[in-house]
Amino acid sequence: MHKIILSLKNTRYPIYIGNEIFSKFPSLCKKHGIKPHLAVITDKIVSELYLDELLSILKRGGFSPEVIIVNPGETSKSLSVLSKIITQLIQMKLRRDETIVAFGGGVIGDLAGFASAIYLRGVNLIQFPTTLLAMVDSSIGGKVGIDHKLGKNLIGAFHHPVFVFSDISFLKTLPKREIICGLGEVVKCGIIMDAEIFKMIETNFESVLNLNPKIVQNLVLRSAMVKSRIVSKDEKEKRLRMVLNFGHTIGHGIEASLNYKRLKHGEAVMFGMLGESFISLNRGILSLDEFERIKRVIFKIGVVFPQKLLERNLILKYIGYDKKILSERLNMYLPIKIGKMKFFDDINFDEIERAVDFLFEQNKIKLTST
């Protein structure tokens, strides 16, 4: 089992990463002073697969877990679902010194994390991600929140966990499409800071898709290190942490235009990365060779840009609502080469429009079955 320490100004916490380490979870809870009474928040899919085993090992370890189960998917990141969770926490009589375990993918991490941030003005949180996307992205860094009808993650907070616990053996039960979604975030880590990650995916693509434990654990570890390094230098997203939003400005516009129902987050981010790399190419910052490498990997991953379901102007409308806009310009990090980014505060909307149009012209991307 590997351990990364994320150090911040006012706190520090470990990120545990390993293969088949599930049984170690109760002992780590005790090591970090977690009280016996705790709330596990999960979704129906994860609960059917793993909840019985989690409850069993927690009870054997001397814990008294109670459970809140929500529907899977982005639509659960809403004020109405959040309100129901808070009601259940009150009914459980969960105290301020007790803990919420976010047991699931990125939606659960965001939703349960935000509940832990606001319930009783903040209770302890453990992030227990069960998807590749959550292991490398949303479980790390303290960003938690829910969506609004006008945009994604517009209601939220910074609330760091006591620790993060990532067991890659949970990935075995993920549908291929979910693996691919997480792989999009891993690709992002390679583009923004670690060119070796990108090269590993280029040269070991089939092994990654087949969940080779050694390779996948290395990718998760390196990706988590990238995010930890960035967050430790810029916890509240004043500048550097914005690099993690690469692909998200356009990606969020695509997601919102489909009401978060047709594309997975990781798929939308891949399209966003391709579109934002296209902006960099057009500015003469990113070489054609590097752009083609990014394009080839995204095409090879195999997701579909659903032109028939999308409306260009609706995508642009939702990008306009995105929280990264400042006055008439957008703040954005763009790749200058794979592994290195540069900040720009003068991205104009014409450039965004051309990038979206470029995405509509792509016909080589194939749909991956669920």
From TrEMBL:
InterPro entries per UniProt? Dehydroquinate_synthase (IPR050071), DHQ_synth_AroB (IPR016037), DHQ_synth_fam (IPR030963), DHQS/DOIS_N (IPR030960), DHQS_C (IPR056179)
Q: Name one Pfam family in it.
A: DHQ_synthase
Chief location of this protein?
cytoplasm
Per UniProt, the keywords (alphabetical) are: Amino-acid biosynthesis, Aromatic amino acid biosynthesis, Cobalt, Cytoplasm, Lyase, Membrane, Metal-binding, NAD, Nucleotide-binding, Transmembrane, Transmembrane helix, Zinc
**Catalysed transformations (reactions):** 7-phospho-2-dehydro-3-deoxy-D-arabino-heptonate = 3-dehydroquinate + phosphate
Q: Which GO terms describe its biological process?
A: amino acid biosynthetic process; aromatic amino acid family biosynthetic process; chorismate biosynthetic process
Entry protein name: 3-dehydroquinate synthase
Q: Name one GO cellular component term.
A: cytoplasm
The GO molecular function terms of this record are: 3-dehydroquinate synthase activity; metal ion binding; nucleotide binding
Q: Extract the SUPFAM superfamilies matched here.
A: Dehydroquinate synthase-like
Class in the EC hierarchy, top level: lyase
> Which positions bind NAD(+)?
G106, V107, I108, G109, D110, T130, T131, K143, K152, F170, L171, K172, T173
Protein task: Catalyzes the conversion of 3-deoxy-D-arabino-heptulosonate 7-phosphate (DAHP) to dehydroquinate (DHQ).
- For binding Zn(2+), which residues are annotated in this chain's numbering? E185, H248, H265
The keyword Transmembrane helix belongs to this UniProt entry's keyword annotation: yes
